[in-house]
Amino acid sequence: MYETKMNKGHLACAGCGATIAMGLASGKFPEKSVVVIPASCWSVIGGPLPYRTLNIPSVHTAFACAPAVATGIYYALAKKYKDHRVIVWAGDGSSFDIGLQSLSGALERGIPFTYICYDNEAYMNTGIQRSSATPLYTITTTTPENAFKKENKKNFLEIAIAHNIEYAATATIAFPDDLKKKVEKAVSTKGPSVIHIFSPCPTGQGFKEMESVKISRLAGISGFFPIYEYENEKYKINIEPDFSRLKEYITMQKRFASIDDESLKKIEKIVIQNFNRLKKKSLLSLNN
């Protein structure tokens, strides 16, 4: 069992990784927390009063402005409290795309808040449209008919780290202790912190509801979604990947139905290249 700040019942789809992620993460939110939720699946999952899912104060915002709203809430509460924490809980659409400018501004200003992106790699709530978090060769409702996304996924966490923040990390719901430890670190950071959680969507990614945790585990151990953290200018890899598991991860999902052997080899090459860059950064951290 784990502590959580979620009430019983919610409005999510069966097997929703974003709901499992909140269940795990919210147990590490400080007592005096306010959660800011931009337009996303969690705008629905949170539910209307009096049937709200979260048992903590929450504010719903438009897609683009959650970090700006979090900034205002922080300064308003700072007049009375010294140990409060404002937490943004956002999907990949508002994190990678529509709200990136707002996030960049809040990180640049050094606002002491925690930004958590639950990433299901598309605009799932509005019909499975592609976002810049959508991986290469993925089929969505806005990729050309009988075709796929031709661009690589944006490296969201490295964009956040480039703002000279103290703490940032990736996590998945398949490794709950790792996820909770990282959230605990993030909300205790004096300045801004960012957590990027892989939160699979059975509906949008095309797998069985019971396989959400398995998909998350494969994403991490295959290197498709590297599990690492950045703390005080140092990188640490938490899980060494087994690239031979990539094919298993990809073939479990209908969104990759267009992939042939040549495309699979290209994905594998990109995944290995990305991890090798990360490995170099972690080795430099050890030597400094």
Task: Describe the overall structure.
The chain has 11 helices and 8 strands. The protein has 288 residues and is α/β, with parallel strands linked by helices. It has one domain: Rossmann fold. 47% of the residues are buried.
Mean pLDDT: 94
Low confidence ranges: none
Structural class: alpha/beta
The rough form would be described as globular
CATH fold name, please? Rossmann fold
Q: What fraction strand?
A: 15-25%
What proportion of the residues is helical, as a percent range? 25-40%
What's the CATH H-level superfamily name? Thiamin diphosphate (ThDP)-binding fold, Pyr/PP domains
* Radius of gyration, in angstroms, nearest whole number: 18 Å
CATH class: Alpha Beta
Jot down its keywords.
11 helices, alpha/beta, eight-stranded mixed beta sheet, Rossmann fold, 38% helix, 288 residues, single chain, 8 strands
Give the topology, please.
Elements: H1 17-25, E1 33-38, H2 41-45, E2 58-61, H3 66-78, E3 85-91, H4 92-98, H5 100-109, E4 113-119, H6 156-161, E5 167-172, H7 176-188, E6 193-198, H8 202-205, H9 212-221, E7 228-231, E8 234-237, H10 246-251, H11 261-287
Parallel strand pairs: 1-2, 1-3, 3-4, 4-6, 5-6
Antiparallel strand pairs: 5-7, 7-8
Helix pairs in contact: 3-5
How would you sum up this structure in a few lines?
This protein has helices spanning 17-25, 41-45, 66-78, 92-98, 100-109, 156-161, 176-188, 202-205, 212-221, 246-251, 261-287; strands at 33-38, 58-61, 85-91, 113-119, 167-172, 193-198, 228-231, 234-237. It is an alpha/beta fold. α3 packs parallel to α5 (100-109).
